[in-house]
Amino acid sequence: MVPTLIPGQRVLTNRLVNHPSLGDVVVFHPPHGADFDNPVCGDPNEGPGHAGACDQPTPQASTQTFIKRVVAGPGDRVSIVNGHVILNGKLQNEPYINHALPCNTPNSCTFRKTITIPPGDYFMMGDNRAVSDDSRFWGPVPDKWIIGVAFFTYWPPDRIGTL
Known about the structure:
Largest sheet: 7 strands, antiparallel
CATH class: Mainly Beta
CATH superfamily: Umud Fragment, subunit A
Mean pLDDT: 92
CATH architecture: Ribbon
Number of strands: 11
Strand content: 25-35%
């Protein structure tokens, strides 16, 4: 999530919100497919090495906890070009993306085939698109696996503030 968050940074999370909005930074359990060195997508015809991002999560949640940004919600149509989200046919304004590490690898940053996010699921991506382990590779996140929306950072002291 660099530059929005740095490793070791601590956040407060609103656990009463399990239906986040686009752009929210969310704490969640990813699909079990995120547990492997080679991510597993719920649809073997999508994800790493394919034209489309992963459109289905594996059926069970991981025990890991991730923090990423919501880039699409239930029913949204998504494609990704050079790390940028095309949501419902429109290129999104994403000023929070880390441009220090550009997306130069088509297999990780470009998924031109449009996928549709299933009802009750959210598509998550990190702000550091070139190296983020996110929904592109292991699928959308069901709302029941969302822990909450991060809203404030309290550590380290020089990064205290709202997200």
